[in-house]
Amino acid sequence: MNIAEFFVNVFIFPGGLFAIMLGLLLTGLDRKIYARLQRRVGPPIYQPWLDVVKLSLKEMVIPKTANYTVFRLAPLLGFAGMLAAIAVIPVAGIYSGLYQSGDLLVVLYLLSAPALALAIGAAASGSPYSSIGLSREISIMLAYEIPMLIVFLTVGMRVGMELGGTAIFSLSSIVNFQLSQGSLLLDLPMLPAFLAFLICIPGILGVVPFDIPEAETEITEGPLLEYSGSGLAMFKLTGGLKMLVLSALTVALFFPMGLGSFWLVNLLWFIFKCVVIMFFTTTLIRAMQARMRIEQAYKFYLLVPTALALISFVLTAMSFRI
Amino acid sequence: MGELLQNIVKKSPWIYRINAGSCNGCDVEMATTALIPRYDVERLGCRYCGSPKHADIVLISGPVTAVVKDKVLRVYDEIPNPKVVVAVGICPISGGVFRESYSIASQLDTYIPVDVNVPGCPPRPQAIIDGIAMAIEIWRKKF
Amino acid sequence: MRKFLKVILNNLIKGPSTIKYPFEDSPAPEKLRGKIVHNSDACVACHLCEYVCAGGAIKMQESEDKKGIDFVVWHDTCTFCGLCEYYCPTKAIHLTNDYHTAHLQADKYNYIEKTFVKKQPCTCCGEPIVPLSLAMVEQIYGKEGDVRGLSKMCPQCRRKILWKGGVSKL
After folding, report:
1. Which domain holds residue C47?
2. What is the CATH number of the domain that holds B114?
3. Is residue B20 a contact partner of residue B63, using CB atoms and an 8 Å limit?
4. Which pLDDT value is given to residue C166?
5. Measured between beta carbons, which residues in chain B are less than 8 angstroms from residue A60?
6. Which residues 47-86 of B are in CB contact (within 8 Å) with C?
7. For A177-211, how does the pLDDT look when each residue is reduced to its tens digit (9 = 90+)?
8. Which one-letter DSSP state was computed for residue A283?
9. Is C111 in the same domain as C35?
10. pLDDT tens, position by position, A161-184
């Protein structure tokens, strides 16, 4: 892959600028549907674009107790991680991914970058509300990583079973396998893993009922408390990108089929699938549930999605033996 | 270019509320303006934020009592520029019914510069939305 | 969980219930207590509204050329309690249902309702007084005789006339 194609792929077309606009559009669509579910007229769909423009024009106020350098560099860490992650995930019919092997594990590591960036930024702020938000963020990150890891292992093992003899962790191979043999949702042992991954998504995104680190009314916005102006704009961009990365990952892992061969039709079908995933994991749950306490969320993540993922893992391993 | 940016920016003002010793009547009206579907203020692009550092328009209610005066000034200093102040209710404008109390020294505009007044005890949510619309016009010109 | 799903489905079907206020009109109910309006023809300058005002918004002062009384209401301190309307003997002060009260800081000290209650000379002795209203005089002195004439006299002349013979002789 030559340097120009690399540049365009990472910074302009499926990654970079296009992904930022699409991710923020997904966030705006989520706010609009949430408002309609409550009998309100919500903000227009392109509202997050306007928010980010406005935030980057305001001045940035840095508290006296903050560590100056780390405070300013922490938002860039999460943004860079997500930008790298979206460039790695393949979309059927449009983009075939950057690497050939091991990129599922790379995405797993990169998905923890925004949470770490939030934690580092909160630690550098030097405010007591931020440190409470920081400890809650780290605990819930530890809780949702476990079922996510088991789901990735299960998918890798299932694909590797048919193709080689060992587990395969390459997203391009997983996507090509499903394009030729039908989606992974069609065989029953993978369904609990799919459910477990969908349950993990609200926790990763920080959406009610799991938005404990950023609880507005309890600890006045936790880790983001001391950020203003362009730092906050970077965090909002990272949030939008994270939603796109998670939807794209779910699509690539479980049902990446395209619709024919024209690239525009494939793109629209991909966006439609992302919107459907976002609706069922984020908006509907947000409209119906209240916020959980940190120990309830921790216990929930260690019990329910882990059990579902383990069921899938064991069933797949057993048929591997047969 | 400046005109285009101003037009973009006026569509997303973020609002922060400060209670400077009020009786909470105006606070209830400000809360209904945001959350009740009937007067939803989010369709104008506004959002109630939880931290003063994210705010653009600040709504202040309550007469500035002696206990809370320094704290209100500190929180006001944390809000990044450009910002607009709206005094909600008659208490910050002139002391209201508490004007002869021992704990109130003077009106709000002797401490911080106020831009829009919305009198009423408490003002109707539609009047508060009027005040916010006027504040957005003033704020857009400050960019 | 199922109850919530039913509620959400109903909400989607019924549509938004928002009154889109600045772009569409929001009518106020008739009995809403809004801004104050003062009728200087019916006012008898008894200062009762100034006494009961909760926010201290009403000020009545004699004008410099002694031709009448300046009546000022500063809307920025008015609590919209309605006590002045309740206690006014002639119903000269009245709360409308206008709730559009937001204004800029520059207009703060101009946001008033100012009227002028004129004094007229007494028909007996010529001294300038604020005439009583007809309804008030009828309530005090009954309806027979020339009560209309009594309403244009100062209190001293009224006392003198009634001592001499009473209302029915007028």
Report:
1. 28-118
2. 3.40.50.12280
3. yes
4. 66
5. 80
6. none
7. 888 888 888 888 889 999 999 999 998 888 888 88
8. I
9. yes
10. 887 777 788 888 888 888 888 888
Overall number of domains in chain B: 1
Asked if omega into B82 is within 30° of 0 (cis), the reply is: yes
pLDDT value at residue B100: 87
pTM of the model: 0.86
Q: Is residue C49 part of a domain?
A: yes
CB of B98 less than 8 A from some CB of C: no
Instruction: Give me the amino acid identity at B42.
Output: E
Q: How many distinct structural domains can be found in chain C?
A: 2
> Which of C39, C68, C67, C74 lies closest to C53 in space, CA to CA?
C74
Instruction: Identify whether the C-beta of residue C128 lies closer than 8 Å to the C-beta of residue C119.
Output: yes
Look at C16 and A41 and tell me if their CB atoms are within 8 Å: yes
Please check whether residue C49 is in contact with residue C40, taking contact to mean a CB–CB distance below 8 angstroms.
no
Q: Answer whether A36 sits within 8 Å of C5, measured CB to CB.
A: no
Tokens linked to C6: 């039913």
CB contact under 8 A, A41 and B50: no
Q: Looking at beta carbons, which residues of chain A come within 8 Å of C4?
A: 287-288
pLDDT, greater one: A50 or C143: A50
pLDDT greater than 90 at residue A150: yes
A313 Cα to chain B: minimum distance (Å): 42
Region C147-156 average pLDDT: 80
Q: What is the pLDDT of residues B62-73, one digit of tens each?
A: 999 999 999 999
Q: Mutual orientation of helices A191-205 and A230-254 as an angle, nearest 10°?
A: 180
Please judge whether C55 and B117 are an interchain contact, meaning their C-beta atoms are less than 8 angstroms apart: no
